[in-house]
Amino acid sequence: MFGSKKAQGNLPAENIEKKDSAGIDICRVPAIAYYGRRRHIDTKKANNGAQIRAFWEECREDGTLDRLRALALTDAQRFTAACTNFETRAYDYWIVVEPDPGAEPPEDFERLEVGERQCAVFPCEGPAHEAVSKQWHYIYNTWFPRAKYGYDAAQGVEIENYPFGDMDSPDYRCEILVPVKPAQTPELPRRRDTTLVVLFVAVGAVAGILLARSSDNALLFAAVGGAAAYFIYAYISKRREEIKKKRDEEKDEDN
Prior knowledge:
By secondary structure, this protein is α+β, with helices and mostly antiparallel strands. It contains 5 helices and 10 strands.
């Protein structure tokens, strides 16, 4: 998967850092150099999926895919699609291969260097373009938004690995590698911060008085407002401790 025949299909143990709660591998991906071609995708002009499929078809018809296949490292028999240089509704889409070390690319090919990074690896099964499109939708609409998975998107090159074979087969398997970083948990108030306790209660009491307005029970409303504010503060503090405890447990497991 990451540059050796041994790694294809099953990640070496040293690359896998952990699995998240959805069963997705979080891996340390080594630096890799690729050779190939790229196309600037401008989604303001047309659907990006249509532009990408047209680029693949062009590379198939003009012999680029055959030339890349011949250039590919013996232990990395796959095409790689890479997304780089992200702009507002535009980016560069590469079709490349990992070549033998020291190989020089043909004059009409470009070199793409991708540094070491931490990635989440998402398997895809089925006809390539359809399976990959469906998985991208899951990644950005479900996996990242759900905080329980614990990762945010990181800046870097997004990768799709396509093993040589029939990419339209219902049994075809490929993968997506997305740069990630640990999600930042918002800092919540410290449980024993007396100043914050007083502030919460005071704000609650004032809110109670404002709700009471000219009522004869203004003091009662103030007391209820202050008590409600205190319980809100206590709840936030408890949640903060639970989050901290969970993060500490995860760090202990990683170590």
